[in-house]
Amino acid sequence: QVQLVESGGGLVQAGGSLRLSCAASGRTFSSYAMGWFRQAPGKEREFVAAISWSGGTYYADTVKGRFTVSGDYARSTVYLRMNTLEPEDTAVYYCAASPNIGGSYYVPRRYDYWGQGTQVTVSS
User: Fold this and answer.
1) Hey, how many other C-beta atoms are within 10 angstroms of the C-beta on 28?
2) Which residues in 78-102 are b (16+ Cβ under 10 Å) and which e?
3) Residues facing 21 on adjacent strands
4) Tell me: the pLDDT tens digits for 8-62?
5) What is the pLDDT of residue 28?
6) For the chain, which has fewer Cβ within 10 Å, the N-terminal or C-terminal residue?
7) What are residue 6's DSSP bridge partners?
8) How many alpha carbons lie under 13 Å from residue 18 in its C-beta half-sphere?
9) Which residues on adjacent β-strands are paired with residue 95?
10) 37: exposed, middle or buried (C-beta count within 10 Å: 0-12, 13-18, 19+)?
11) Strand 10-13 versus strand 118-123 pairing type
């Protein structure tokens, strides 16, 4: 069993930055793929970014060039650095983990473990 805890959300003005953290515990997750998803009110959960166990990174087109995903496997923590935030980025952000992603980084159902989410609000 893997437990994931997100932190770092908050209220920021448009153009600002935040860094989200996802701390994993329970099992060694060095071979897991880690993803970030977000869900705005009334919308479906959508893919934001992911990092493979080998360090490969993947981004949604809407955040490419603004967000950076990274992992510190020695500390069992994954980060999402978000720059140039826009009001459209307002959502609850979730961290997820998969031991067998099979290349489907963008698909929520391929992830077995989820955090509780952290709210990000970007004001205009």
Assistant:
1) 10
2) bbbebeebeeebbbbbbbbbbeebe
3) 7, 79
4) 999 999 999 999 999 998 776 678 899 999 999 999 999 999 999 888 999 999 9
5) 65
6) N
7) 22
8) 21
9) 36
10) buried
11) parallel
**Which two tokens mark 42?**
């009334």
Burial of 24 (0-12, 13-18, 19+ CB in 10 A): buried
Beta bridge partners of 113: 97
Q: Which two tokens stand for residue 78?
A: 């994954």
Of the chain, the percentage scoring pLDDT greater than 90 comes to 81
Backbone angles phi, psi at 42, to 5 degrees: 80, 5
Neighbouring CB atoms inside 10 A of 32's CB total 26
Token pair of 60 as six digits: 């949604």
What span, in angstroms and rounded, lies between the C-alpha atoms of 33 and 44?
A: 21
What's the start-to-end Cα distance of the chain, in Å? 40
The C-alpha R_g of the chain, in whole angstroms, comes to 13
